[in-house]
Amino acid sequence: MFDSLSIVNEESNLATAAHLWEAMQAGLILPLSENYKIPLLFAQEELASIRDIKVDYKFLHDRVQQAAYSLIPESEKKATHLKIGQLLLNNTTEQERKDNIFALVNQLNFGTDLLTNQSEKDELAELNLIAGQKAKAATAYEAAVNYLNVGI
Questions:
Q1: Which position has the higher pLDDT, 65 or 134?
Q2: 62 Cβ partners below 8 Å, 6+ apart?
């Protein structure tokens, strides 16, 4: 999650950790392990060499998450989701995409009607196919149908 937040934030891991520290101090988010301290202890150059450290957070309450989401103007929500999806797509490896296919595709699917380039539409259809197949394999048939329909 931390790497994804840094990508979406379009800032370094160190800057993102500082922003998250402020949110933790305010009691808006909670770390799910002690690993949240790692980005705060190392310089950016050192962080680049540290791999496979999982840093996860959760909102204090669903209401906090809803309040944060409500700050995005309604007219900008589709574009915001699309941008988040595109940043994740362009800054992750193919394996990371497969591992996080649902989060990626869910972001991109919010902005499907904003896509104008046929190659982007084709890529999204392919990603929805992957998500649909993965959902089907997990016996999440309703989700599989939804992803496959969006892909079509």
A1: 134
A2: none
Taking Cα atoms as reference points, which of 77, 78, 72, 100 lies closest to residue 88? 100
Query: Minimal CA–CA distance to 86: which of 120, 126, 122?
Result: 120
95 SS3 class? helix
Q: How many CB atoms lie within 10 A of CB 42?
A: 16
Taking the CA atoms of 147, 149, 150 and 152 in sequence, report the sign of the dihedral they define.
positive
Question: Nearest-CA neighbor of 32 among 9, 1, 5, 66?
Answer: 1
Which residue shows structure tokens 């890529």? 123
pLDDT digits (tens, 9 = 90+) for 80-97: 999 999 999 998 888 988
DSSP 27: T
Q: What is the pTM of this model?
A: 0.75
Cβ atoms of residues 40 and 75 within 8 Å: no
Closest Cα to residue 20, out of 44, 47, 41, 2? 2
